[in-house]
Amino acid sequence: MSRTSSLISEQMSLQRKNRVLLIIISLILGITIIIQAILLAEIVQQIFVEKASFSSVSVLLGLLLSVMAIRTLLFYSNGKIGLYMAAHAKTNMRAAVIQSLTRTSMPGMLLGQTGGKVSIALDAVDEADSYFSQYMPRMIEAAIIPILIVAFTFSLHVNTGLIMICTAPFIPLFMILVGLKTKHKSEEKYEQLSAFSGTFLDSLQGLVSLKIFGRAHHQQQQIERSSLGYRDATMSILKIAFTNTFMLESIVMLSIGIVALELAIQLLVFKSMTFHSAFLILLLIPEFYSLLKNTGTAFHSGRTSMGAVRKVEQMLAESQPTESIENTTEATLSATNKSITQSSDPLIRVKDSTPLSIELEDVKFQYAPDSFALETGRITITAGEHIAIVGKSGSGKTTLLHLIAGLLQPTAGSVLINGNTLSTYDESAWFQHVSYITQHPYIFAGTFAENISIGAGREVTRDQIVQAVEEAGLTGLVAQLHQGLDTLIGEGGRGLSGGEKQRLALARAFLKRPDIILFDEPTVGLDLHTEQILQRSIATLSQNATMITVAHRLYTIQDADQILYIDHGIVVDSGRHHELLARLSPYADMVNVQQKGVLA
Fold first, then answer.
1. Are residues 135 and 203 in the same domain?
2. Is residue 156 domain-resident?
3. Distance between CA atoms of 122 and 225, rounded to whole angstroms?
4. How many domains does the chain have?
5. Domain boundary residue among 283, 313, 343?
6. What would the pLDDT profile of 506-528 be if each residue is shown by its tens digit?
7. N or C: which end of the chain has fewer CB within 10 A?
């Protein structure tokens, strides 16, 4: 609850001017409501009691119409300000969610379902609208206008004022009781929606596999169960909403009835009131309770929104571990920032001369307690070197690559770039100098040219894209496409083979010309011809860069300037091919197996 309140408070603090404007408008609106009732009571008094002509009250009628128009305008203004506050708050929250996703560590990215995260970023944030557009304006109105009406009523008739004070608390009391239940049900609703969205998206992405393994019907039943769970959670909230409306109407009608009865007794039995005063009070009483009733409805919507905001809070909290790691480097960052900003950026300065050097100083990393751990010891990668990382499957090769790329933060030790800790560099500036090509590069829905240019990080010309295509060996493929570079390719690269996706990823790198190139076994599973094309492109691309490859082919290992051998998360040894053959038996055994495979 406190975290939810903190997020809402943060958004509200950004909108002080709008809140002050709401207070001013609500105050004027309350005065307008009272003036409208006074004018209407005076008109009725003169026409029906004093038998005055319509012409004699024409001025009052004109004033009444003007006041009613002003009241309508003020109410409309309150609504517009609420909508503006909601739009502003949703923009901020959605930006915070997206930013937290971009900052999430690799382990954090793997947690949860993609559909669930998308649902929170879209549906849950949108549901927060009611809190700012309805709940806040109505609560501000309820904090000002009913007090003005009660104070004015006390000046007319003390007994009625006392009845209003005694009956009014039942509405907020009931609102609190219902609100607590609503918030719990709302959190349950968005939990079900997140699960449903995640299951549905997973099923769509894996539909081919489900059909092949005969699990499509089973997954359909799972989606149906998830959908029914979301339906039940939604209906529970609607049930509470209908109950809330019924009870509020009952309380309001009963309260108005008590006031009307008391006025009738005073007017007809004791004759202690004038018709004008009684009628004026009867005009104000429905306004008073209607405001409280509308506040109750808005309160229900607000509590529903708070359940949605709670889901946003939970997603933002998932990025806290990463942020705390970043915060631990804040002191180092502030100490080094002066020297970095006083001179030119070290990354930019080195960019004009030589590739970047990398040092790993006793780097340690662990995904979770009692889980896989990686230890590197001290490793130096000279600028321009070609490094091969080898070892058995699951030994930590990809994890080491992620640490060097800056996608994971070390739990101990440091990754140094040209002598500076990697964490001291701005993330966007660092990634301008790195290309990371995985086994399965992601291809976005769009044209062939758009997918290549995304790797540049800047505006590029058509000629530059064409040159990157040629260097990546894609000229023949592009010539076969019916619209060339403007051919649309599907999300995930539908319509492209594995080798074509790899070459497209290489074209991105050719366009970028990075200082450090990271390869995670990019040629695994490719035919010999495609692999040879890729190897030639990789050799060309890495001529003026530091290249680090998770290697599996013998010729890649033999040609490396330095080989890092990893076993069970520990960098056991490093050196050139002939050096490791001579002193490291596990490495010699691995090479022997490779040679036998080639001969076979």
1. yes
2. yes
3. 22
4. 3
5. 313
6. 888 888 888 899 988 776 666 67
7. C
